Amino acid sequence: AEAAAAPGGGSCSPAGGGSVPVLFCFSVFARPSSVPHGAGYELLIQKFLSLYGDQIDMHRKFVVQLFAEEWSQYIDLPKGFLVSERCKVRLVPLQIQMTTLGNLTPSSTVFFCCDMQERFRPAIKYFGDIISVGQRLLQGARLLGIPVIVTEQYPKGLGSTVQEIDLTGAKLVLPKTKFSMVLPEVEAALAEIPGVRSVVLFGVETHVCIQQTALELIGRGLEVHIVADATSSRSMMDRMFALERLARTGIIVTTSEAILLQLVADKEHPKFKEIQNLIKASAPESGLLSKV
């Protein structure tokens, strides 16, 4: 490929041979190194990771910038840029709030089922309904090949996941005492799944374990969808204010039907009929969604 020169010449001088000297800047650091002549964006990112990997938060969004002498400042790396001469680049974390679109695809989604346990049955409002919806979501996950992570809050005292919920094929079923589901074992399981971008989260209680899990997940750069008809609390006031707070942070509050149909996306999807049959077996109209 023909090397593209930086607009305005960049902060560069010609370099011969098979490699080009590049100064890599990140935060307060600047480290000289080199890349092959003609290296592009991907190789620059790899070099940043090799130099600063222990300091870069991979869950954040970044932009690569090039120092342009014409402007005497950094500019966003031009589209199609290839290194052809000595230059200076930097990696900048984006501070602006990004609009969350909420697109879901099976290949980039994980389901989190939080603490749907037997001892909560008499205390959680509409518990029978959220069990029914949760089971339907897990059936959909199996049909679409979506990984499922399940936690149980102190099962020794609070019992295991209710029998109505089939955990067959779950990637991880884990006891916990921490309210958030984001445990080291869960983070390790997520790291094993390539391309994870979105988490579909449901269970109990909305204002405790669901809320704390969601906030930790978005803090790690993941998009979170909370299934309103599959999450509840002992108090409807706690549930309502938790969902309002989470929605204001950019977390998507949605429904099980919306989730399942977004994941198939097309009537011609090979699993559409089976997903449609799951939706038709809907839970009773409990009034839960009127209390979002």
UniProtKB/TrEMBL annotation:
InterPro entries: Isochorismatase-like_dom, Isochorismatase-like_sf, Isochorismatase_domain. This is Isochorismatase domain-containing protein 1. The gene is Isoc1. CDD domains: YcaC_related (cd01012). It comes from the Eukaryota. It comes from Haliaeetus albicilla (White-tailed sea-eagle). Residues 109-257 form the Isochorismatase-like domain. Belongs to the isochorismatase family.
